Here is the input.
Amino acid sequence: MPNPSLSSPAGCAMVDLFGRRIRYLRLSVTDRCDLRCVYCMGEDMTFMPRDQVLSLEELDRLASAFIALGVTKLRLTGGEPLVRRGILDLIASLSRHLNSGALQELTLTTNGTQLARHAEALALCGVRRLNVSLDTLDAARFHALTRRGSLAQVLDGIAAARAAGLKVKLNAVALAGSTEQEVFNLIAFAHGQGMDLTFIETMPLGDVGVDRIDQYLPLNVLRARIETRLSLTDTSERTGGPARYVRVAETGGRIGFITPMSHSFCESCNRVRVSATGVLHTCLGQEDAVDLKGPLRARGEEGLRAAIAGAIKAKPKGHDFVISRGGAPALARHMSVLGG
Ligand code: SAM
Ligand code: SF4
Here is the structure.
């Protein structure tokens, strides 16, 4: 018996009850990472048991099911996607959807530590753009914020990506006590090389061992700081995500602001997320979760697509994060489970 939600044109299965068409999948390929950023993870993390994590073949089938239903943009994330063993095989395989035209963009969010050795291969697979997370240009602060990382390694990675022809956008989480001091250096670094720079408000996901209120820097405060020296003009430019962009007169570059805390952007949300264990989350800021590993392993492609379509219909209207002193995390899940 055909499933009614699937007998309509493929894309209709991906329209939610609020009329939002889901075209964008963020797929976490691992919850593990070589860094321990202070806003993302605790010092001692318990990661998913390996047998619960989807195999590369399962990740491929899962992504392909979303693409068959109308997803046109796929972002691989993590944890750190480039530490997943065999990740380049997965990306090479997924690139067939770029070649067929079903997928318009295959991209990654990465911390950049492994980019120097993978950049060329990524470009050969049809990856055109990357988001690289970089919160500071101070080596000591980088080491402290990531609890172990090397700034030089990431800068080498960014250089290698650019040399391979990849367009790099930098993402920085706005952190009280650090970003205000660094903001002009970050802008000069990014815009000096023609890269967009986006600031993100820290979200209260998971226990990271520190009080979130001590980390939280509202972006209106950061913007006011930037405007003490630079002239910003709001633009209506969007890149398909939640960032609102301003143009900097002095550099000619763009700064994006992602404000999940102080300004909700849920009404235009076109994305869903799947964890490395095959759990579909249709809202980053809600507890809703639909297991896709079961259908993936048991029922074949039709059951899998039906599970996806059913979950899309139930996508929550939006989220409402609150950060308060001593408050519990809004959600127990860490950012590294879904990758932002
Ligand atoms: N490891 C990769 C990286 O760092 O780019 C991909 C995964 S990481 C979870 C994705 C993005 O989420 C990064 O830009 C990171 O800065 C951001 N992020 C992590 N924890 C966050 C939090 N609590 N609030 C806001 N952004 C966060
Ligand atoms: Fe790892 Fe990215 Fe989380 Fe940092 S933000 S700990 S690099 S997953």
